[in-house]
Amino acid sequence: MPIPTTEKIWMDGELVPWDEARIHVLTHSLHYGSGVFEGIRAYETRKGAAIFRLTDHIDRLFRSAKIFTIEIPYTSGQIVEACKETVRANDVRSCYVRPIVYLGYGEMGLNPLLAPVNVAIAVWPWGAYLGEEGLTHGVRMKISSWRRHDPNIIPPAAKGTGQYINSQLAKVEAIKAGYDEAIMLNPQGLVAEATGENIFIVRDGSLITPPLSAGALIGVTRDSVMAIARDLGVDVREGDLHRTDLYTADEVFVCGTAAEITPVREIDDRVVGEPGPLTKKIQEVFFAAVKGEVEQYSEWLEHV
Ligand code: PPE
To answer: What's the rounded Cα separation, in Å, for the pair 77 and 86?
Structure first.
């Protein structure tokens, strides 16, 4: 689906019209995948648009940049403000927010240290990432034949643009085989995450997700799910998972900013079933929290 356009995109401190937000074809990051980015959502609340855990996302953006030795020419406070300004300028209440830090035009060759650093922030309305049907009835997943990055090859702790070619290989394989999404194992064969989501299983009433050391991104939604589940009195832990733990789980779901909380109803043609009670409860609390309907989680909302 083509991106629904909005009015303005923030580029290096200025709001420029959507159609004029252009870059040179010799932009370093286009050639070498040397950017870092974030995916954030703003939701409509009684008090206007609020960006969900904006500061946590921007902190992760700065950590990603640090890993790749990219010096962002703004403070995190300035980027937080710029995200709010972009949402305000576009008069959208509920939208996806995409800040990207990229190495710009001026230098070619692999040494990224000489290239200029540019920052852009775009916002647009983005519906259910894995489909409305997926949100309510669950998606069908395939374990990918492509492995997640080894941390000493490409660090999964960073959200770098280039690392998503790995996700895309897995995504294409899954879609061409007739599934909705792929689950990726790490080089040791343990479950890491999905192409753009973290993964959770429910087993005997406990909620289990792979540790970051298994190659999972340090997901903001993952963290929110763990907090919600703990507050519901559910036993939550990180644990190594084999693919068969997914096949035999009582419930499985994936979560991420774009995917929100999407139940999984089938993995490699093994039926997990319709969304289970804990998945539905966590979905319910999460969707209420992002809309500002749960007092306990009001500090997660950053009003624009
Ligand atoms: N793992 C990966 C690999 C990942 O890309 C995401 C976010 C997550 C886990 C969940 O992280 P968080 O959003 O902090 O809960 N993926 C983003 C990109 C999606 C896209 O297609 O682009 C997102 O959800 O915004």
So the answer is: 14
How far does residue 253's CA lie from ligand 1's centre (Å)? Answer: 14
Cβ–ligand 1 distance for 138 under 6 Å, the answer no
Mean pLDDT of 207-220: 97
Is the pLDDT reported for residue 12 higher than 80?
yes
Domains of the chain as residue ranges with CATH: 8-124 (3.30.470.10), 132-290 (3.20.10.10)
Q: Whose CA is nearest to atom 11 of ligand 1?
A: 219
Q: Which residues are catalytic?
A: 159
Residue ID of nearest Cα to ligand 1 atom 4: 196
User: Helix, strand, coil % (nearest 5) of the chain?
Assistant: 35, 30, 40
Residue 256 Cβ < 6 Å to ligand 1: yes
Q: Which atom of ligand 1 is nearest to the CA of 98?
A: 25
Average pLDDT, the chain: 97
Instruction: Say what the pLDDT of residue 1 is.
Output: 77
For a pLDDT cut of 90, what percent of the chain falls above it?
98
Q: Which atom of ligand 1 is nearest to the CA of 38?
A: 25
- Spatial distance between the Cα atoms of 80 and 176, rounded to a whole number of angstroms: 39
What is the pLDDT, as a whole number, of residue 200?
Answer: 98
- Assigned token pair, 23: 């870059």
* Whether residue 268 has pLDDT greater than 90: yes
Torsion angle defined by CA atoms of residues 168, 172, 178 and 183, in that order, rounded to the nearest 10 degrees: -30
pLDDT of 256 > 80? The answer is: yes
Question: From ligand 1's centre to the CA of 12, what distance in Å?
Answer: 24
Atom of ligand 1 nearest to the CA of 198: 9
